Amino acid sequence: MSTHVVADSATMFRRNLLHMIRYPAVTIPVVFTPIVLLLLFVYVFGGTLGAGLGAGGGRAEYLAYITPAILLLANTANAQGIAISVATDMTEGIIARFRTMPISRSSVLAGHVFGGLVQSLIAMAASLVVSLLLGFRPQASGAGWIGLLALLVLISFAISWLSVAFGLAARSVESASNLPMLLLLLPVLSSGFVPVDSMPSGLKWFAEYQPFTPIIESIRGLFAGHVETSDLLAALIWIVATAVLGYMWARSLFQRRALR
Amino acid sequence: MTSTLAPAIELAGLRKSYGEHVVLDGVDLTVPAGTVFALLGPNGAGKTTTVNILSTLIRADAGEVRVAGHDVVREADAVRGKIGVTGQFSAVDNLMTGEENLHLMARLHHLPKDQAKAKVDDLLERFDLVEAAAKTAATYSGGMRRRLDLAMTLLGTPSLIFLDEPTTGVDPRGRLIIWDIVKGLVADGVSIFLTTQYLEEADKLANRVAVLNGGKIVADGTPNELKRLVPGGAIHLELADVAALEAAAMLFPEGVRGDDDLSLRLPSDGGIVALRRVLDSVEQAGIEATSISVTTPDLDDVFLALTDPSARKEPVR
User: Fold this and answer.
1) Which of B77, B91, B92 sits opposite A1 (nearest CB)?
2) pLDDT in tens, A198-223
3) Does domain B2-224 have CATH number 3.40.50.300?
4) From CA B32, how far away is CA B7, in angstroms rounded?
5) For residue A1, which residues of chain B lie inside 8 Å, CB to CB?
6) pLDDT of B42-78, one tens digit each?
7) pTM for the model
8) Beta strands in chain A (DSSP E)
9) In B148-157, which positions are buried (b, 16+ CB within 10 angstroms) versus exposed (e)?
10) Which overall architecture, per CATH, does domain B231-296 show?
11) What is the rounded CA–CA span in Å between residue B315 and residue B259?
């Protein structure tokens, strides 16, 4: 009965929020992993890598350079958390109960997506606060901040749907983090940590055309106060495509998945 | 009113296999509305598969399946609106408290808040879960989980309830609570489809019983009709020693030996004539028997007679 899809999704979202509070073992690493990586990159590698950014580059410049990548890392770390939560949930008898009730099929998945979205927004906010405390000074205007927030929400939303599909595709809880692991590598193989120009040619080609590069360039641009329209457009196309693909894949997996 | 209702369940030619393994091989069943139907069968007979198909969880390979008057595939949501399922594996949310679990169900059934509260409180009371209401379900014992599970099923006021081995792993007190609830539901006109391994449970609760074996219904009727299918009950002889047991077993080749307790079980109608014949034979042969007792047939005998692999003629797959 799809008339209740919004109400049912809200109910499932509440359930996922309660799970996050009662079982924070998934949320805590998602929040702290990007912060630890931020500190590592800035204080261990930052001096050298910052110098590599060009004349006048240093630790402070590197902090500004990698903050967008750290925000995306928070998202991809969260992808693992979501996939594991979904895979775990699918082993629970209550999912079978939901399937025998006249509720919208997507509402169970939507609960995980919105729960994941909240988790990733918390993780990104925590990373950004640490980055600001370390001395990151964005130049974004009011509209820029709104655009940034909208972009980050959209990215989280898209990656959440994809992660739900990853979790459903996993044959076991143990293997649920395998596919998201690849996602975790993507920000590293983009313009997130070092300029693409510094990479060997094959890798450079990959880095230029993979989805995270325009997304990172857009975030970087919004922080700096001047964003390239072409980057933003490419980022939005990738995000929408990921969201649609993730949604359709997750839905079909959930429908097909037989009981054990 | 019952007579005008569509049958709770209509099954015709139901088939399901997983690869080479045939689980259901042409099952036909009709369960009238407002009755309790028990499906018996050994482990792996396909009882849970049947429940899963009837409750829209999995699809049959072939056959006509109607539940509460609706086709389970084409009108799955209409079926889901009328059924409640308490499966073999507890369908409760472990991270939520008993009360939260019930409120989750109330929200998914879109009950108004005050109505939901009244219903949740009533179910907690009826299922003896008031004290545990604020504890997370992960801390519950097996019996408490089962009770919570059934309470969650009842929150939707279903007209047909599937109970897949509802009292497996439940202590005697919990079992009585569940039986009482089931009887109460039947009095309210709810239909029940029960699978169980406890024949006593089927005997106590069910109007009709079917035995599923080898993917087919091998018997179907009231508990009393089924009991008449097997020739009588049994005479139990207890012997003084192994030598006496050997001698008695020679005397009654049809008997089933119990070497552990030195007993011999003789199929019989339990009548006086048969009893006297056994006593006379034992005495004439000079066999020392320590006690003799008579049992009338129960569903266990029916079950064993119908599902004993050595008694089955068809090849085992």
Assistant:
1) B77
2) 899 999 999 989 999 999 999 999 99
3) yes
4) 4
5) 77, 81
6) 888 888 899 999 999 889 999 999 999 999 989 999 9
7) 0.81
8) none
9) bbbbbbbbbe
10) 2-Layer Sandwich (3.30)
11) 29
